[in-house]
Amino acid sequence: MGRALLPERRVELKPGEYDHIQEELEKRRWNFVLASLPDEIDEVLVKEFYANAWEPDHSQPHSRVSKVRGKLVHYDRRSLNRILNTLMFQPCPLGAFMSSYPDHDLTASTLCLPRYGYQLGTSGTPVRILRKHLNSLATMWSLFTFTNICPNSHTSDINLERSYMVYGIMTGIDMDVGAYISQEMALIADNDTCKLGFPALVTALCKASGVPGVADITLKLQPPLNKKFFDRNCTNRGEFSAMNAPHPVPPPRRNVRAARPPVASSVPSPDLFTRYMQQSLARQDDIRDWCTTMRQGQLSLQDSMYNLSLGIPDFPPDSLMTGDQFAVQIPWPEGRPESRWGSAFPGAPEPELDEQEDMMAGDGHEEEEDPDPRWTQQSYHS
């Protein structure tokens, strides 16, 4: 096999350096082995492992096994969690999150810089996030997954599934890391072109399974993920500039003169208010005249249809009402509406001035500011 290897990285941080990264590694028990793999890789042994890896029963992931130098090396989730000293979850909380249609806006707001998000595909669905749009913490965790969980040499962006994984790590969603690594190993074994990932872990697996001759160390791990690496490759300059930007200085205060005392609003005179209400009622009178005219047209149309039905042979009797029957069945209110403010049509009695003043002054128990009389609903009676 002429395929290249993609070695893992160790996480080497001192106390006080990126404590949030160290705390998350300890909480997930990744600090024992996954982030501190032995710096020894047997290239020939790793290639033999992937060349002989098979899955007897694809419906049973626990049956994944390889044969290296006459020894069976199991790489199922249970075997991997055992050697990594990590916890198993059934079902995997992160897997349940991925299959629950996560909120892409929420995921992007957690992983990306402000005003950035997913790149959309031709169908308008989220596809990837560019690395330059990730915030610093998301960049650090994505690089860790690129070498130690889901190996990939293409690191300029993260696809949809990897964005869910990084989001789960950053938000504390539990993850069965042994199951994910087992699945990745099976995919690498089935693919003839991708690089061979997990070489240090495969070497440790073979050594734990009693494979003879695990001493030909030909490769080393990639440079570790330490403070120098994070500062140089993972700190987003735009985010750093925003965090360290000086706070805006408020403009100097001006000597503002004391505001003038509020002037009480003038109350319209009763005559002016009455005139306004009469103009409003005049419009209502016009509307009523228009409705009365339409009512007369309805009665005339009803009579015409009734007379027309009399000349139609075999027309069902009493299927149409006459105009008089229609008026009795659907009565029309008689008389014009009256209001305490008077009316615009001639002959209507004008309200007395005392009544207008009472309406303007109120009874003394109302709020300081009365509602606008233009929006007060008028009550009518026949």
UniProtKB/TrEMBL annotation:
Residues 241-270, 332-382 are annotated as: Disordered. Residues 258-270 have a biased composition (Low complexity). Residues 351-371 have a biased composition (Acidic residues). Pfam families: Transposase_32. Residues 28-212 form the Putative plant transposon protein domain. This is Putative plant transposon protein domain-containing protein. It comes from Phaseolus angularis (Azuki bean). The lineage of its organism: Eukaryota, Viridiplantae, Streptophyta, Embryophyta, Tracheophyta.
